[in-house]
Amino acid sequence: MAVGVSRQSINSIERDRYVPSLLLALTLARVFGCSTDQIFTLKSGR
Prior knowledge:
- By secondary structure, the chain is mostly helical.
- It has 3 helices and no strands.
- The protein is globular, with a radius of gyration of 11 Å.
- The termini are far apart.
């Protein structure tokens, strides 16, 4: 995988079961060519 994590990890991030580290979030943003704000949002109570 381009970011060095398993499919299960990506699935967990997508389903809000896992919060990625800052390094992983920045890596994902770089791979997708966008800012972290575009792919991650903070939810109330978290």
